[in-house]
Amino acid sequence: MSYGLVCQQCKEPLQLDASLIDLAPSAYDMIAATLPASSAPYSHGSGDSQRHDSISSKSTWQRTKSSALVNTGAPPLSPRAQGKQPQRDSPLPNESFVVLQDSVIHAIQPPPASPIKVKGNAPKARSDTTLAHTPPTAKPVEPEPDSPSPLSHHLRSTARLFNLLSTRTEIDHPLCAECTQILLTNLRKQLEETKKERDGYIAFEKEVRKEREREAQGMTKEEALKKIEKLRQEEQLAIEQLRDAERERDQLDEELRSLELDEKALEAEEAEFWRSHNDQLLAVEQQNAQLATLRAAYAADAATLERLEKTNVYNDAFCIGHDGVFGTINGLRLGRVPGVPVEWAEINAAWGQTLLLLYIIARKLDYTFENYRLIPMGSFSRIEKTAGDKASYELYGSGDLHFGRLLHNRRFDIAMVAFLDCLKHLMDHIKVQDPGVDFPHQIVKDKIGDVSVKLQFNQEEAWTRSLRHVLLALKICLKWATNGANG
Q1: What is the CA radius of gyration of the chain?
Q2: Which of 143, 181, 237, 266 could form a disulfide linkage to 115, CB 3.0–4.6 angstroms apart?
Q3: Rounded-to-integer distance, Cα 378 and Cα 380, Å
Q4: Percentage of the chain with pLDDT > 70?
């Protein structure tokens, strides 16, 4: 319980020790006897020194908290936080006690009989403290109605004790354990400094006494002259040493200035070096980023190239297949049968695609026909003869019924035979390049696989079958021309 008491330094509430609450009158008298006399009456001769001591103690008390915070180098702590700091040196005041010897106890006169009521749960004294026991015959007397209660009486005794301590010393009481510890630490430091100062005064006093003893003994004129000469020599030597020290100091100052200039130059050089180093690092990073970008683009382009190399555009541009008995190129039927009439426009378009395929294969293989020149023009393609009698033959037919149809069909047959001759020369060229290529149908004059490609005087089924053989030979040529070994 704090009973409304606060520390006079940090203003934190205090909790009294049980020994102070139950302080006996004998203990109070013994504590009062140990205190110094009251500082109120000052003598005229010693007033200045006592006032100086009081001011010094007050200043020490004011520096207690601040010096502790400066030594730790930490920011100021609140009194509650400082109370959590561990105590190191001296025991806390609330952990101290007073040992009363038997002789002291017997010497103390018992207090006058006062009405004190003894309770059954009164606090016990410490194991190492001896207390005077009340005679067993004595009976407690009930207090007067107007007398104070035991608790107020103890509080009044405690307050009177604190007032006595504040009056006899320069420190206001009560104090908490933390403030007392800090005050004791600073007082110890001040005591050590005072001891050192005292030792210095003692040594100086000894030297003064020795000088006075030597002066009392007296010295002759010759000794005085010798001493003066010796002191002059020492003075001259000291002056020379001082001049040498000044010259050395000037040299060192010059060297220091030179070193400072060198240091500034090195710092500038270092700054320039790090600047160029950072620029170089940025340039390297940019180059690495560009290199990574180029490598990624190269990898993507390489993958695209590989995919394109594996892609055969000729197969997509010229899709050769069959539809029943008809051979087809890009879905266009080439040929006619009696049961399935095919328009001549579809046949002519199929022949235009076929002539275009033969022209592209020859150009890819860098092959030139000797006797003919191919002119792919869609449904109106033609073949020109370049050797001998030059002529141009139409590679398309017509279903119109007129007199010139017979002449046109004859020119159409000559164009188909010329196409077959160009196909035979291309097949021979491929066999020369790769003897392993096998064509299932051989070409002899106007026949391929023993079937003529002429339309006149021929059955439509045989003509259609010969055209299917032509498309098969073109497909083999296209596959060989577009494989990995040839392009």
Answers
A1: 65
A2: 143
A3: 5
A4: 72
Measured in degrees and rounded to the nearest 5, phi and psi for residue 98 equal: -115, 130
Euclidean distance between CA atoms 479 and 474, whole angstroms: 9
| Collapsed DSSP state (helix, strand, coil) of residue 102 | helix
Q: What is the pLDDT of residues 116-138, one digit of tens each?
A: 333 333 333 333 333 333 333 33
What amino acid occupies position 233?
Q
Q: Which residue has the tokens 């892609």?
A: 311
Pick the closest to residue 78 from 86, 70, 88, 69 (CA basis): 69
Give CA–CA dist 58/429, Å, rounded: 125
**What pTM was computed for the model?**
0.42
Task: For residue 185, give both structure tokens.
Answer: 């630490």
* Cβ count within 10 A of residue 344: 15
Per-residue pLDDT tens over the stretch 390-408: 899 999 887 665 555 566 6
Helix axes 25-34, 150-168, angle to 10 degrees: 0
Catalogue the E-assigned strands of 353-440.
372-375, 382-385, 391-394
Residue from 412, 485, 472, 411 nearest 442 by CA: 472
pLDDT at residue 18 greater than cutoff 80: no
One-letter amino acid at 217 equals Q
